[in-house]
Write a structure and sequence with these properties.
With about 800 residues, this protein is mostly beta strands. It has two domains: about 100 residues, Immunoglobulin-like, CATH 2.60.40.1120; about 575 residues, TonB-dependent receptor, beta-barrel domain (Maltoporin, Chain A). It contains five helices and 48 strands. The strands form nine sheets. It has a 22-stranded antiparallel barrel. Strands 9-14-15-12-13 form a five-stranded mixed sheet. Strands 1, 4, 7 and 8 form a four-stranded mixed sheet that branches.
Length: about 800
């Protein structure tokens, strides 16, 4: 399979012979002041040709064959330039850009994003690229075809709790921002896409930076960063109705609307969404509701934008996974809520659910002092509150710090209990940036943020079969967490001839305090700690423009990252782990031609004190992550897209990587033949693979346009073998899989509607049986080699369908 995929990909990167000697050249200037505009983006629509003007505003596009083309030029702060040009000889095209009558939304996210000249591995995904795919599945599944990405779904169908890994790094190591505002949970660093259902319907574009990337707000990126920009100004009013239905009783209903730019210079946008699904796994249902509202004032020198969006979810728990021995006999088995009734029959608690609502508030202000200086500021507040509910059969009173119950001569130490584990938190703060552009060869951004987190964790017993000594609403644990995050950064770009130099320095100071009682490993523990971290994160690189179509780049960056909440609560101040450090090196090559583009990126991510689970028990008796030395990721990422004919294009990407831990000691519980615990032991492993880090990941999209408005997309995703833990044990390995999807879409203009699009998506068309995620608890039984004591696997759905109709008014 590897040889086949490598050979297939290599075809995409074969260069094409030029079809002619004609070139388009010219200069980009400000129409009013006649000053040159450097680094404007010039492209030819429906081709892969994209070039930048040089420091003097000059540009050149080579190897253009005879024909008529639409030339496009964009530059921040200016109206888009479009012109039809006919090429039958060398063409000199002077481009005069008119300053925009309003400030544009791009200024809001400029400080936390990279540009085309930034020397990093990145991908931009536009709204149009995912719109027809948006049939209810969560955002990770809609960006699944981007390089180095692997996705998974607890419910097996991409709706509900979904996960994403980039370069093998899980969601806790992927920094996510919306309009530059951090979204990852401050304590766990996790990203829960289920809390923002259908956010993609309100997103204008997504930038994915792989590796450390440039400085942004929030926790350091240890695998990638994902920056979402919500809807920008739509000058015309609109309304849109989107509905989809599919397998597993899945359904999506979305209505969107906007006023366009009103005479008072205000614009208003809104969206309401509802997504439901039964899930592929038993009882893995999802009921998701969300809305988005924005109001923006667009002046010539100012933007004021108010944004509020909210997500509410109720999902039946499916995070236990399926035991390995059930994969062949009962692939959709879900143990969540299982108990034995008084009649001896197996039953399932109907409300074994996760319930959570998160409300987001943002206010953004941008002011342009003059053509060189722009200032941005934003304030934000995120309110989150919810719980998950569980039925626990025969639970010990002692686990909840409750006394045993004495009835007559009998002492009762267990009972059936229904409990709720609550999280009530607030995250709020402000961000800012001052942007300078000389419009010659120098630009700089000075920015930062001050954010605070207040979180309350508590558990309540809401019912007990034997409720004596249990007061109503009894809280068996309650603890508070407070975290402040102050960061400042400066980014500099300097252009010298055809070389762009980039430098970036960030300082982060984190103070984390928590106190109270926590429920750790099903036991009550007192937790009270204060931790302070100061991180300095430098980054630097350069881009060399060999000619208008070819460039190379190099990058070095450092990221530091504080431990997560569990690392603190499951340790004492004497045993808690150290912060992690990542040194990241990137080297790349890009080539843009009329009929094809390609890119190659070599990366090395070298970790110091990487935190991993080892099975070791710490000084408070809990399993916790430990710092290890000598771990790294190194690989090659390839991307290509070729326009084979007017009706046929092919995009492909491939990642080959080595992800290693040089020396890894795993600790195991030791049991006798009756599975009674008798002690611990350890095994030393050398040069093992980092868990969930496949050597080979590949994606392919073949787009066919048989006739106007009709598209056929053949999508393939290959994920190589990956290990569940860090031991490289073949018994704890997920098999490689190749999944193929087919999307058919037809877009037309019909009476009463501006546009109508019908989409039919067949996921996993070949009905591949595969598992995308798993967990395992290992032990040594009766002096054997380490074996799985408990495990959970997450099988994904076989062939399934979604059909959607999108109507624009």
């Amino acid at each position: 399979m590897k040889k086949y995929l490598l050979s297939l990909t290599a075809l995409c990167f074969l260069p094409f012979m030029a079809f002619s000697q004609y070139k388009i050249s010219g200069k980009v200037t400000d129409k009013l002041s006649e000053t040159n505009l450097p680094y404007a983006t010039i492209s030819i629509e429906n081709t892969h040709i994209v070039v930048l003007s040089n420091v003097n505003g000059a540009f050149e596009i080579r190897n253009v064959s005879e024909g008529t083309y639409k030339l496009k030029c964009t530059f921040i702060g200016y109206s888009t330039y479009l012109a039809d040009i006919h090429v039958n000889k060398d063409v000199n095209q002077q481009i005069e850009l008119e300053p925009s009558i309003t400030l544009t939304d791009e200024f809001i996210v400029r400080a936390t994003r990279s540009t085309d000249q930034t020397p990093i591995a990145q991908s931009i995904i536009t709204k149009n690229e995912v719109q027809s795919m948006n049939l209810g599945q969560d955002l990770p599944f809609l960006i699944n075809q981007t390089p180095s990405v692997v996705t998974t779904s607890d419910a097996g169908a991409g709706i509900g709790y979904t996960g994403i890994r980039i370069r093998g790094s899980d969601a806790t190591r992927v920094n996510v921002t919306v309009n530059g505002i951090p979204i990852n949970d401050s304590e766990s660093h996790s990203m829960y896409w289920v809390d923002m259902p259908d956010i993609i319907s309100s997103v204008e574009n997504i930038q994915i930076q792989r590796g450390v990337g440039t400085s942004t707000n929030g926790a350091g990126a240890f695998g990638a960063s994902i920056n979402l920009q919500t809807n920008i100004l739509n000058s015309e009013r609109y309304a849109e109705l989107s509905n989809a239905v599919g397998s597993f009783n899945s359904m999506k209903n979305t209505i969107s609307f906007g006023t366009g730019l009103l005479p008072c210079k205000w614009a208003f946008d809104g969206r309401m969404s509802r997504i439901v699904s039964d899930g592929y796994i038993d009882r893995a249902s999802s009921n998701l509701n969300s809305y988005y509202l924005s109001a923006g004032y667009y002046g010539k020198k100012d933007i004021l934008k108010l944004i509020h969006f909210s997500g509410k979810e109720k999902t039946y728990q499916a995070w236990n996974g399926v035991p390995k021995d059930s994969l062949l006999t009962n692939r959709t088995f879900n143990s969540a809520g299982l108990y034995t009734g008084s009649d001896g029959q197996i039953k399932y608690y109907e409300n074994e659910t996760d319930n959570y609502q998160q409300d987001y508030f943002q206010i953004h202000y941008s002011h342009q002092f003059n053509r060189h200086f722009t200032f941005n500021a934003a304030g934000h507040l995120t309110n989150g509150k919810g719980y998950y509910e569980q039925y626990k059969q025969d639970d010990k009173f002692s686990k909840y710090d409750l006394p045993e119950v004495v009835v007559g001569n009998d002492t009762i130490d267990r009972t059936d209990i229904i409990r709720q584990l609550w999280l009530d938190n607030k995250f709020y703060g402000a961000t800012y940036s001052l942007n300078y552009n000389s419009f010659a060869n120098f630009s700089a951004i000075f920015g930062g943020a001050y954010n605070k987190y207040d979180g309350q964790h508590y558990g309540e017993i809401i019912w007990a079969e034997i409720s004596k000594n249990i007061p109503a609403g009894f809280r068996y644990y309650n603890n508070l967490g407070y975290k402040t995050d102050l960061n400042n950064f400066i980014k500099i770009n300097y252009q010298w001839r055809n070389i762009n130099f980039f430098a970036d320095m960030q300082h982060r100071r984190i103070t984390y305090t928590f106190m109270g009682k926590a429920f750790v490993d099903n036991d009550i523990a007192d937790v009270e700690q204060v931790a302070v971290f100061n991180f300095l994160n430098p980054k630097a690189g350069l881009t060399l423009q060999l000619n208008p179509q070819n460039s190379i780049y190099g990058f070095w960056g450092v990221a530091n990252r504080e431990p997560v909440r569990d690392d603190f609560t499951q340790s004492t101040s004497d045993s808690r782990p150290k912060a992690e450090t990542l040194n990241n090196f990137e080297f790349g090559y890009k080539r843009n031609e009329k009929r094809y583009l390609l890119g190659a990126n070599v990366f090395l991510m070298n970790y110091k004190n990487q935190l991993v689970l080892t099975g070791e028990i710490n000084d408070v008796g809990d399993y916790t992550r430990k710092n290890i030395d000598g771990s790294y990721r190194a690989g090659l990422e390839l991307e290509g897209n070729v326009i084979i004919t007017k009706f046929l294009t092919w995009g492909v990407n491939l990642t080959y990587s080595q992800n290693k831990i040089k020396n890894y000691k795993e600790y195991y519980d030791v049991y006798d033949s009756n599975i009674d615990w008798i002690g611990t032991d350890s095994v030393l492993y050398e040069n093992t693979n980092i868990s969930f880090s496949p050597e080979l990941i590949a994606g392919s999209i073949i787009n066919i346009k048989p006739y106007k408005g009709f598209n056929i997309d053949l999508m393939s995703k290959y994920v190589g073998e990956q290990y569940i833990d860090n031991t490289s044990n073949k018994d704890r390995m997920l098999d490689a899989y190749l999944v193929n999807d087919i999307k058919l879409s037809y877009n037309c203009h019909i009476k009463f509607f501006k546009e109508a699009e019908l989409t039919f998506l067949i996921n996993n068309v070949l009905d591949q049986k595969y598992v995308s995620n798993a967990w395992v608890y290992n032990g040594i039984v009766n002096a054997s080699a380490p074996v799985a004591i408990e495990d959970g696997y997450f099988p994904q759905a076989g062939r399934n369908y979604l059909i959607g109709l999108n109507l624009k008014f």
